[in-house]
Amino acid sequence: MAFQKQAMKANTSLVLVIFFAVQYTASTQNNRSTIFHFVIEETSFERLCQSKKILTVNGQFPGPTIYARAGETVVLDVENRGKDNVTIFCCKREGKHLKSDQVNWLIEPGFKVRKNITIFDKEGTLWWHAMNIWQSATVHGAFIVHSKPGATYDIPIILGEWWKKDVKEAVLDYIDSGGDVNSDAFTVNGQPGVFYPCSNNGIFRVVVNTGKTYLLRVVNAAMSKTLYFGIARHNLTVVAMDGSPITKPFTTDYVKLSIQQSADCIFEANQQPNYYYMVAGTNVGQTHDMNKTTTAIIEYQGNYTPSSPPLLPLLPNFSPNYDKSSSRNYLNVIMTFVILGLLFCTALVVVWNRRPRRPHRSAMVTPL
Prior knowledge:
Elements: H1 2-30, E1 33-47, E2 50-57, E3 66-69, E4 73-80, E5 86-90, E6 98-100, E7 104-107, E8 112-119, E9 124-130, E10 140-146, E11 154-162, H2 167-177, E12 185-188, E13 205-208, E14 213-220, E15 227-231, E16 236-241, E17 244-252, E18 254-257, E19 262-268, E20 275-281, E21 293-300, H3 324-353
């Protein structure tokens, strides 16, 4: 009997140990955290046949992608080795799906800041960036939230811009003149693409396998431009916008992305093995204006001779920067016709009132 009691106590203790171990493991998994280290510093880059220094995070343009899962706390350590104050803005999305110490925080030169960001639920694409308009041109990156562990063929696509001159000077010129901030090139993941000079070798490529499905995490990081995005001969199925799933996913030839907007787009590698252009721009038609179009390449794996040049998608011909002088001339023509019409109507009224009138004839009616 004594032996049985000791065995029962041992079994009970073992069960309790296993129970608490499971609870501890579940607790640590639910409260797991990942630490990301950001270093803000100037880095030299060569684009459009010339070299210049830009403000970057970890020497990358665009900056590093943050990957997280629902229920996870992300710890972000940021060190500023630059010359100016930098305020980082992170991860705003509709709804209460994440919690941060602050939506934005200031890092002074020579200082470090640590922030905690907790993701509650849902999957989607967010992004982080500098608050200052000229700093945000190069200090930005994707923030991707996965709903659960597993193999996901997701590819961050950051649509940005490049300036030959110092971005700060370009912004100051914009403020002084009141005009638009026009860059020298649009970029896909920091690369302008083949329509710009000295850009063939560095073009961004996505290597795909026939029959596989891929999730593109597309972010419009352009300073002030709405961009259209598409892939030659491939449809895009939009499943989320601005970090939140949409109730009715839709399939389209291209996606329109407003300023600071993100979209999750699924595409299937279901075409003949070849090279296909991925294109983004503001005014894209069959001519593909090199000053308004950036390109990347979808490259199928396999043995084949690719088309030269690769196939291009057809995107809408759209120009938000319309010719204001032409519109004013058009308005002047309309006003001229309106004034002429009013004068013509006035003349008709005058002529009608001055027409000769016949004398009225009076008649006497004699009652019967």
